[in-house]
TrEMBL record:
Gene3D superfamilies: 3.30.1180.10, 3.40.50.10170. This is DegV family protein. The lineage of its organism: Bacteria, Bacillati, Bacillota, Clostridia, Eubacteriales. PROSITE patterns: DEGV. It comes from Ruminococcus difficilis. Keywords: Lipid-binding. The keyword NADP does not apply.
Amino acid sequence: MNKVIITTDSTADIPADIAEKYNIRVAPLHVLYDDEDFTDGVDITPEYILRRYEEREQLPSTSAVTPEEYRQFFEGILNEGYKEIVHIAFCGDMSSTCQNAVIAAGEFEQDICVVDSRCLSVGMMLLCLRACELRDMGISAKHIADTIGDMTEKNIGGFLLSQLEFLHKGGRCSSVSLLGANLLNIKPSIVIKDGALTVAKKYRGKDEMCRLKYMKDRIEEFGDQIDTSRIVLHTTCDLTEKEIKGYKKELKKLIKCDEIIVSTPGCVITSHCGPGTFSLFFMLK
């Protein structure tokens, strides 16, 4: 057994088969409806969140993994025989999850190295997969953490939103912005920059055409800088398999890459971005 293990938070949106293949352990955040406390990816699904909003117009709030939950999480892994942990955490500027993991890690004598991913969603997954490759080369946890920390600036990602309703309900979008976007059929793209989400280009028109243009723009923007070993196509659970296959086919026309991973946002991202969310994530060379 390799003495080093890679862990992360549920906001990394790692598909279950990939988490199992690379032996990545996931600490789940909380999804809250009034007095109901659900565990992200355990007893609640993105489908449930969309269905509940459609039926009741009710959205959940989310909360971080607590220091005590992290302590138990790390302790359970160490009790399995692992000697070192590299934990790749949700962006520290967006959530207290990273700081809570640091607090918990400080209670152990073993090397538990917490890396602030400076991103979210499958941007975290890309860093986890890089960390697993380093782990499999026999590199120590501290060296892996240092290397991954240096890679965070090469992590490119963002979201194309189909609508602003969820952001508005969550208090992250004004009524005026919502009305304007609805009247003009605007789909904003959001990028991750300096640990924060920022509105970038705005698209107008039907979802399909906006998504195709968004992919083309992102690929052309970074061009030869893109590391083509792995690209992630990330879409909310309401898109059909046929639609996703179509977008994957179009992506292959735009860029030749070794692997395209198709994944679905978990409960946290879904509750903030809403249905029809579409995104592309990749690393730079």
